[in-house]
Amino acid sequence: MKLTFYVMSFFEASLLKFGAPSMTCLSSFYSNLCVRTFDSEMTSLNSTRWCNWGNVKGYYSNLSNCTEVISDCLLIPWPNPLVEETFVKIHLRYFKDCPTEELGDPPPLVMFALVITPIFLIPVMVILVVFKTVNWDDIS
């Protein structure tokens, strides 16, 4: 909350002095407040620990919150293209070498079971509904 108060006070003073915010102004605030803090936090970690989400999620969350607070203070919608660009740059700088786990297709037997089950269940359910709604006393 201390950072939020400082950021809001700084922005309110800036707005009174300079007028409406621009994307250049927003970019400057992101770089000088949010990204600089994130950079210092990430450099405090060993680069081998950058790919472990448990190590960086707090820093990443702080970065996201910082960009949101600044955007809100300047009355600029969040997220915006500048936020997206900032996060892409962060990912290229810190996370480009992290391994990604790609999910493969399930084994053929599992896939067959997942496909065939609804194919057989739908007609069975229709038949049950029809039998349940038919008045068997009228038939005899």
UniProtKB/TrEMBL annotation:
Origin: domain of life: Eukaryota
Where, subcellularly, is it found? Cell membrane
Q: How does it sit in the membrane?
A: Single-pass type I membrane protein
Provide GO CC annotations from the record.
cell surface; plasma membrane; receptor complex
Select a single GO molecular function from the record's annotations and give it.
coreceptor activity
Q: What is an example of a Pfam family matching this protein?
A: RAMP
**Does the keyword Cytoplasm belong to this entry?**
no
The transmembrane segments are: 109-131
Q: Which GO terms describe its biological process?
A: angiogenesis; calcium ion transport; cellular response to hormone stimulus; G protein-coupled receptor signaling pathway; intracellular protein transport; protein localization to plasma membrane; receptor internalization; regulation of G protein-coupled receptor signaling pathway
Entry keywords, A to Z: Cell membrane, Disulfide bond, Membrane, Receptor, Signal, Transmembrane, Transmembrane helix, Transport
Q: Does the keyword DNA repair apply?
A: no
Protein family: Belongs to the RAMP family.
For this entry, the protein name equals Receptor (G protein-coupled) activity modifying protein 2
Organism name: Cynoglossus semilaevis (Tongue sole)
